[in-house]
Design goal:
alpha/beta; Rossmann fold; Pantoate--beta-alanine Ligase, Chain: A,domain 2; 6-stranded parallel β-sheet; 3-stranded antiparallel β-sheet
Length: 278
């Protein structure tokens, strides 16, 4: 597996693959890789001849009181996992390679970033949109694979790729879960043993809510019940439990094709997110 550090080297490697007639895929990550990330690589390999992954802990998507400094980093371990998973290239830049002196551009979408996680984390999705736009424009991959666990991020990336005609097909890969149902996340490492046991209340509350919605129960009552179950399990504050249109993220009053049930809440100091199709 080749490792490159600069956007110019990533661009050159991807261009060489395209010139050779190969279909290319990109898997953007922030590292601290787990089975969920490796499932993205597997999906990318199903859709392309060669796969590049990126590892970049993007400072522009962290707020001033968030966990940028303590976000887990293990490039050597991550590189070994990617090599074993069949990645052909790892793009692992430094912050100065992505945002050199004088960098003054930000990518901001209207609407989608302002709700749900965006309301709780102002500016977060501007940072996501900026770095993803740079990655997609530099790599020019045929396909890029993102996880469905961060559904709002996936919706934003799909929108910006379409709006800016970036030429990359954006694919969402299903959430990978532990045996008890908790969605895999790099931030799960922050949970204490007791919190890890309590965390399963999040997927359970969403599963029960999804079943109730599919049975025709009142949406507001179902969402209130889910919030109550999270609070009883020790979650708080609860940023949201919402039923939305999967593409627009607009709250809806009844399940419709493509609807998504989403939640975000703190368990101790750790913010967890999850979602289900309804």
């Amino acid at each position: 597996m080749q490792i490159v550090r600069t956007p110019a080297d990533l661009r050159a490697a991807m261009a060489a693959w395209r010139k050779a007639g190969l279909r290319t895929a990109l898997v953007p990550t922030m590292g601290a890789l787990h089975a969920g990330h490796l499932a993205l690589v597997a999906e990318a390999r199903r859709r392309a001849d060669v796969v590049a992954a990126s590892i970049f802990v993007n400072p522009k998507q962290f707020g001033p009181n968030e966990d940028f400094a303590r976000y887990p980093r293990d490039e050597a371990g991550d590189a070994a996992k990617l090599r074993e998973a069949g990645c052909a290239l790892l793009f692992a830049p430094e912050v100065g390679d992505v945002y050199p002196p004088g960098f003054a551009t930000s990518v901001k979408l209207a609407g989608l970033p302002d709700v749900l996680c965006g309301a709780a984390r102002p500016g977060h999705f501007d940072g996501v949109a900026t770095v993803v736009t740079k990655l997609l424009a530099t790599a020019r991959a045929d396909v890029a694979v993102f996880g469905e666990k961060d559904w709002q991020q996936l919706a934003i990336v799909r929108r910006l790729a379409a709006d800016l005609d970036l030429g990359t097909d954006i694919v969402g890969a299903p959430i990978v879960r532990d045996g008890d149902g908790l969605a895999l996340s790099s931030r799960n490492a922050y949970l204490s043993a007791e919190e890890r046991v309590a965390a399963v209340a999040l997927p359970r509350a969403l599963g029960e809510a999804a079943a109730a919605l599919q049975a025709g129960d009142d949406v507001a009552a179902v969402l209130d019940t889910a919030r109550g179950r999270l609070a009883a399990a020790g979650f708080g504050p609860i940023d949201y439990v919402a039923l939305v249109d999967g593409a627009t993220l607009v709250a809806i009053g009844a399940p419709t094709p493509g609807a998504r049930l989403l939640a975000a809440a703190f368990l101790g100091r750790t913010r967890l997110i999850d979602n289900l199709a309804v």
